[in-house]
Structure formats: C-alpha cells, structure tokens
C-alpha cells in the first residue's frame, strides 16, 4: 500500500472531531479503531434492524460503511480548512453479510489537488470467521471551507 503524507499535522484529531459530528455514523454505532494517513478502519455491531428480509446485512448499510471508511481515509489527506464530499461511488457485493459484526477498511488509491480516489473493503465476522462481503470504489471532491 502506498504511503501518504498528511497535509494537516493534526489530521487524526480533525478526523475524530468530524466523526463525533457525523450523526448517521453515530446512529449506526460505527467506531473507528485505526486512523493513519490514507487509511481508516472501523467496526459495527450488526443489529437486527441492519439486516434485510432474509437476514443478511442490508446493502445500504454495507454501502454506508464503505463510504464512511473510504471517505474518512480520504479526509486524512486534506489541508486544514478543506473538506471532502462523495461525488461518485460504486459497490460490488461479493458474499452475503452474515455475522455479529462488520469491519470496514478504507484506503486512498490516489490523492490529487481537487479529487481523491479511495477504495473500501467490508467484512463480516461470524463465529470467529471473517468474510469479505463487499468492495467499494469512490471519488471525493476536495472543497475549501
């Protein structure tokens, strides 16, 4: 994986602050355990209301996890006074999301001056076994605040 140099030396504090302000992320209960330049990882307990009609993790929740992980990974690389917004996203569902918890890992592929390209992998854990459920690709625009 490529090594990135953050443009903001306080990127981790900035990310943690933005995570506290992200109402939907907090509503879901997504918690980050790893924040490094260009890489963010977090976990989610899979509650019954996050499942679709046959008991798999809902695709919308899966896509949200991909956007959160990849988006915050992208956000680690912006300058102070900048933010990012999702401008394009694709998700590929690879396996049913069966398990007690989900792990989302987002990482930057390329960081430019106006856009950042990132990917995410979503895993579920069921009885100690992890399964890759989905992969996502996203493009984020960098905006001046």
Summarize it.
This protein is of the alpha+beta class. It contains 3 helices and 6 strands.
List the helices and strands and how they pair.
Layout: H1 11-21, H2 23-28, E1 31-36, E2 39-45, H3 59-75, E3 82-93, E4 101-111, E5 115-126, E6 129-144
Antiparallel strand pairs: 1-2, 2-4, 3-6, 4-5, 5-6
Task: Explain the overall architecture.
The chain is α+β, with helices and mostly antiparallel strands and 145 residues long. It has one domain (11-144): Hotdog Thioesterase (Thiol Ester Dehydrase, Chain A), CATH 3.10.129. The protein has three helices and six strands, in the order ααββαββββ. The chain has helices spanning 11-21, 23-28, 59-75; strands spanning 31-36, 39-45, 82-93, 101-111, 115-126, 129-144. A hairpin with a 2-residue loop joins strand 1 (31-36) and strand 2 (39-45). The longest helix has 17 residues, at 59-75. The N and C termini lie far apart (30 Å). The relative contact order is 0.21.
Please give a handful of descriptors for the protein shown.
alpha+beta, Thiol Ester Dehydrase, Chain A, 3 helices
């Amino acid at each position: 994986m490529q090594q990135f140099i953050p443009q903001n030396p306080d990127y981790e504090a900035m990310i943690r602050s933005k995570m506290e302000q992200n109402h939907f992320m907090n509503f879901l209960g997504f918690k980050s355990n790893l924040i490094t330049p260009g890489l963010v990882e977090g976990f989610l307990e899979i509650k019954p209301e996050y499942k679709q009609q046959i008991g798999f993790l809902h695709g919308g929740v899966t896509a949200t996890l991909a956007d959160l992980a990849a988006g915050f990974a992208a956000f680690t690389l912006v300058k102070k006074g900048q933010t990012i917004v999702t401008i394009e996203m694709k998700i590929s569902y690879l396996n049913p999301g069966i398990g007690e918890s989900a792990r989302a890992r987002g990482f930057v592929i390329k960081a430019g001056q106006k856009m950042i390209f990132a990917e995410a992998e979503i895993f579920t854990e069921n009885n100690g076994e992890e399964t890759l459920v989905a992969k996502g690709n996203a493009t984020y625009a960098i905006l001046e605040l």
